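[09:14] KT: can someone run the structure on this one? pasting the chain below
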Amino acid sequence: MSPKPIVAGHIFIKDPALEHVKPAVWNTIPNIWKKIRFDAMNVLYISPFSVLPNKGFGLIPQDGQLDALEKRFEWVVARARELNPDIKIIVMNMYGCDEGFNMLTSDYEIDVYTSSVAAFMDSWHNRTLTTDSGKTVPGHIDGYDIDYEAATVVENAGAVLTSIRTKLYAVSNKYKISEFQVSASSDRTTYLEKMAPVLNYVNMQNYDGGARVDPLTYRTQIKGIQYTQLLRGISSEKMEPVNRPETLDAIKKQDLKLLLKVDNTHSYAGVMVWRLNSDNWVYENAFQVMLYNQIHGTSLAQLPDFAFADNATIYKGWDGKGRDAHGNLTGPWTGFPYD
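[09:31] RB: done, structure tokens below
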């Protein structure tokens, strides 16, 4: 029996920063997040984690505050588990020059960083969190992902991920739990062959800079990678011109299950969507629900205030200007809606 397809989503908890407040109020939970459809995904990726200045692993400091994003992270984990008890939650290390693998320049620094990743997972294993409704939910984290582009595309990336895999094995063995996921969300195949032996999945960024890479090359250029380890990537922030022709074709045909198909014999593992909380958050979450329903044959309802007439309205897509809850263009983006 084939594995159940994966539908994954991503939230970037730095947005919005409440830019109209100086300094930014990072510990405030934006009201829009309460409408994010964490129930319409199997796996949730949360960023921005990073290589810290001391070579440890953690959330990126903001405005000099080391714990600026902790409340948001805890809230998202709690909310996701409340809506979707079976959801897998993966922490994602971002790609910038001040946060990526380029900052790890020696075996010692790699050891410091990877030990910190393992310590983070260990510290969250027995955590419980309280939701806004007062419900207690488990806080454990299910894995680690690297946003593999720009400053994380370095020759020693394989060594970093191999060390992470080894140290996470020790944590899972300690608690006698299933192994942690180790994955890469990649816009290219460079050095991925060195990483392949320790990766559970590769989320192909078939959009933006990664749109130039034919998805089939991941299988042909990365020795040992199977189609069942590859997830198609789609940008729901905006549709054209950032997504690949195959994605746009599936949207045109209103059949998102086409994204899973490799050929008549093989299928990809699933679909990962970028993202859930940009300025087009209403449309992104409506799309997430529609994708989940089509991939899994379910009938999750759209939120009542997302007044789309039907799926055809969602399929109109995004052009970078944004749309309101009725699918109408809202004009140039002027900031995040908070209510």
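[09:33] KT: thanks! The CA atoms of residues 117 and 339 lie 35 Å apart.
[09:34] RB: yep, looked fine to me
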